[in-house]
Amino acid sequence: MSTATVRPRESRDLAEAATVLTAVHESDGYPVEGVKDPEAWLSPEGLLAAWVAELDGHVVGHVAINSPQPGEEVARLWREESGDDDSHIGVLARLFVAREAREASVGRLLMEVATAYARQRHLRLVLEVLTKDAAAIRLYERLGWQRIGEAVHTFGGKQFDAVCFVAPA
């Protein structure tokens, strides 16, 4: 298998990333919000930076860092634990990898790039992951992320249990 590369996301990447996201949603149920407008979902309010992973010239993964948004439980938990304010917190989000690229360590590569970006900007990264997404939880734990609490993710009248993590210091 070829080696994946990670680079900053460009506007021309959105359509291909949206196609990958739709396929991931169909196979894994991520995101639970669905993908009615995947390009909009990939560019949320508070987006600070985003990257794509490529394999053989095709987008196979994505990750973003957002600023904390009002009511975001993971940011609240970290503020209470650390005393940091929102200007020192980044929320890792929109991480997904095409099923066919998961053996190429694409998730780890995306996480490394996002973590380096955050460190350069003195941001502590936090994230929320649904408990059903066991493979993602294993990745975060392998990379040294620490659990800081639990949350409930609500969408479409349904509630989903989630775990909140903070990146290693």
TrEMBL record:
Specify the species: Streptomyces bacillaris
**Annotated ranges, domain N-acetyltransferase:** 4-169
Note the InterPro entries from the entry: Acyl_CoA_acyltransferase, GNAT_dom, NAT_camello-type
What is the recorded name of this protein? Answer: GNAT family N-acetyltransferase
Q: Which PROSITE patterns match?
A: GNAT (PS51186)
What's its EC? 2.3.-.-
- Pfam families tied to this protein: Acetyltransf_1
The yes or no answer to whether the keyword Transferase is present is: yes
Source organism, top-level taxon: Bacteria
Keywords assigned: Acyltransferase, Transferase
Any one GO molecular-function label of the UniProt entry? acyltransferase activity
